[in-house]
Design goal:
Largest sheet: 6 strands, parallel
Number of strands: 6
Order of helices and strands: EHEHEHEHEHEH
Low-confidence stretches: none
Number of helices: 6
Distance between the termini: 16 Å
Strand content: 15-25%
Mean pLDDT: 97
Shape: globular
Length: about 180
């Protein structure tokens, strides 16, 4: 199985310091939907691991989050691909869970779902915590410069992190190697 794990906000869609709280506020980044579809059509299993503390903060409901994810699935399907799995952390920063990145609970959930190890599995994020969560379970981290990525690029990244302009560039790299 060729598995890839993507962060959502800042990688697939525009990020917002005020949180993405509705389908109307959920805007895909240029090229991201096509990139997911390209990976999917090439045989990659596409999973998403996303912190969504806006749930704990009361900014949106689980139904609204699912509607945003349904919109993502529909857009990718319209390009001939599909998103195979979405896992989210609904907790706030002080809730003490093990799924909020930079902890690796979401990644372990994905590994358990597919009954695979994550050694070398590409994970794409725009923040240090995305990369740390994946690297802690053996994933190959890819930083994109979209979202918070440019600011993250100057930080101490996990060993072996590869840096690309956006998800489309990561997809092209993976499809060509």
């Amino acid at each position: 199985m060729k598995l890839i794990i993507l962060d959502r906000d800042g990688v697939i869609n525009e990020d917002s310091d005020a949180f993405v709280k509705s389908v109307a506020e959920w805007h895909p980044l240029p090229g991201s939907i096509k990139a997911i579809a390209r990976l999917s059509k090439a045989g990659w299993t596409v999973a998403v691991a996303t912190n969504q503390s806006g749930l704990a903060r009361g900014y949106f409901t689980a139904q609204t989050l699912e509607a945003m994810h349904q919109r993502l699935r529909e857009l990718v399907a319209a390009q001939g691909g599909h998103v195979d799995l979405i896992r989210h952390c609904p907790h706030g920063p002080d809730d003490g869970c093990d799924c909020r990145k930079p902890l690796s609970g979401l990644f372990r959930q994905i590994a358990e779902h597919y009954a695979v190890t994550l050694d070398g599995v590409p994970t794409v994020g725009d923040s240090l915590r995305d990369l740390q969560a994946g690297a802690a379970v053996g994933c190959q981290p890819y930083l994109v410069r979209t979202g918070k990525g440019r600011a993250t690029e100057g930080k101490s990244l996990p060993a072996g992190t590869r840096v690309f302009d956006d998800l489309a560039a990561v997809a092209s790299y993976l499809l060509e190697t």
